[in-house]
Amino acid sequence: MREGIMDKNFWREYFSIPNIMGYFRIALAMLYMLLFYRALDGAPYWPVILTIVISGITDFFDGKIARRFNMITDWGKMLDPIADKITLGAIIISMSFKYSIVVPMVVFYIIKEGYMAVAGIISIRAGHKIEGAMWYGKVCTFATYVILIVLLLFPNMPEVMVNVLVIADMIIMAFTLIKYFIYHRGLWEELRGKLPKNMEK
Question: Where do transmembrane segments lie in this chain (predicted)?
Answer without folding.
Answer: 20-37, 43-61, 82-100, 136-154, 160-182
